[in-house]
TrEMBL record:
GO terms for molecular function: ABC-type nickel transporter activity; ATP binding; ATP hydrolysis activity. Signal peptide: none annotated. It comes from Alkalibacter rhizosphaerae. Residues 2-243 form the ABC transporter domain. NCBIfam families: oligo_HPY. This is Nickel import system ATP-binding protein NikD. It is found in: Cell membrane.
Amino acid sequence: MLKVEDLSVSFVQYTKGLKQKDLKVITSLNIDIMPGEVLAVVGSSGSGKSLLAHAILGILPTNATVNGTMMYKGEALTTKRQQSLRGKEIALVPQSVKYLDPLMKVGKQVQSAVRKGDPVKAQKDVFARYHLKSGVDGQYPYQLSGGMSRRVLVSTAVVSGASLIIADEPTPGMDTAAVQESIRDLRKLADEGAAVMMITHDIDTALKIADRIAVFYAGTTVEVAPVSDFEGRGEKLRHPYSKALWRALPQNEFLPIEGFQPLPSALPPGCLFAPRCSMATPECSAGQPEARELRDGMVRCIHAT
């Protein structure tokens, strides 16, 4: 459905003396997703997860430069094609509730996303499923709580009939019942043939519905692994960062990862994780490792076996 290869995103910035420079925030990022699949994208804040979603949809700021290849259903995802597919074949559940139109009642906003069948019925059915009471459809976004607004955003994607759904942190602020309903619906959409990309920092939630997990670090993909590899002490995982991330979870060993993810303006040479990696050798600083296939997954590490 979607294939992203060697994606880079940089932003033009002006420094002291009005000197212009390019700040690269995504480097050599690779992912692919098949129809019927849920791909979870995980990583810490600032790793490039949301920027990837915006690059796919073509909604980056005007000072952004995008390089690399993005293919949707086998054809290049050009700017013109992004405009024609956005909100139709490709739907976004955005991270910010500010994406809701403040001047339109939320019921109408969800109804406008329905492509087949009765829009009013579809909206009322999905609101009932997400425990949005009767009368909410007649309210404006400012009248809703953050959790209610997020459920409205998820509802819009669910009724859209899109082939590719990108859910950017779709569950924060929801109660437990709404979270479970939301992720079940994302899984159901995939089972019905859609491709679903769920961007999240919550690995536990991702494990419940995803087929594969892509791990991001400092603006690049360091590993893509089947969900079944996330078990035990992470012995089946390939990249040192993925293993450290897994072992840092409270329900595992709760071991902190030393150091910090580098800022885009201060990326180290070579492997971006090397300064924090116990396996690092001088070779790791020679250049960023190439992405390679390993044990039914992908890894970007010269020491991975």
